[in-house]
Amino acid sequence: MGDSDPPAKRFAFVLIPDFTLVAFSAAIEPLRLANRYFGRKIYDWRCVTCDGNDVAASNGLTVRPDGSLGDLRLGRMEFDKVDTLVVCAGIDVESFTNAELSAYLRKLAGNGTRIAGICTSSWFLARSGILEDRRCTIHWELLHTFAERFPDVDVQPDLFEVDGNIHTCAGGVASLDMMLDLIADEIGDEATEWISEQCLVDRVRTKNDRQKLPLNARVGVHNSKLLAMIEVMEQNLAEPLSLAEISRRTGLSRRHVERLFRQLLGRSPARYYLDLRLDRARQLLLQSDMAIVDVAIASGFVSASHFSKCYRELYGRSPQADRQASLTERAAGPKGGRSAPL
Fold it and tell me: Where do the segments described as Disordered lie (predicted)?
């Protein structure tokens, strides 16, 4: 660095056990490539864990940190001030607690330091008390569970969100999009486009881009009337609408609605709607500690017994048994085969 060059911006990445490696890597690459583009170190970063010990990612690979959270907090690392703190989480973030990290996040949020959360980190940020009345996003697998658990947080289904000094993203390669947006004003459009090309990204996605595939791609049909009905169903899972009301909202007769669902999806609209609600229930059941009766209510069922009966018919085991099987898989670790957010 020349004498006239400004000091490098300092990033600290806090790796929580079972963090998602692809999201972490995608967050660091824009910083590395920005340094390469300008031919000097404009960004510097360190990785820490809460206790300073090696940490395993959700895929089983182990990362050796540069130090502990205490080292960072007390200025015992190579830089004594953090410009941006990035929290990296993955599976089982719901069960992770650390009082030191929570207190540090509250301190940084209070003094205006930039904080970023990738993948499922919004869960820990919310539990630490820094997302109340703020917008954020989280990986789509945890979206509904998060909304139930933290009603005072405005969670959005976007790739990434920015609310003041807090940036959050859904994980996976969305970390790249968030970081490019985060540093764009500092490095300029030309450098941002060059970094995107180096990463073989055909365009810089905005925060309003979808996390999931469009509805027509997910469902596998292109009939606009059918898609409109499914969208109405997906927006009304906790308080299901009658088929007559869905028909009224989409301007179709009940007979026409029945025919479309059976012809294009091989199911009645009532069966399709029920399966959507059971899918929501399964997400809440496996990804939260909500009581089963509360899961039933949040998924539009008036009784736990009716919910359990429908659940067993679709998934082959009771809600209690499914939750217990999921807990057993979590305890088995990365080789247990549990699906996890990217």
Answer: 319-342
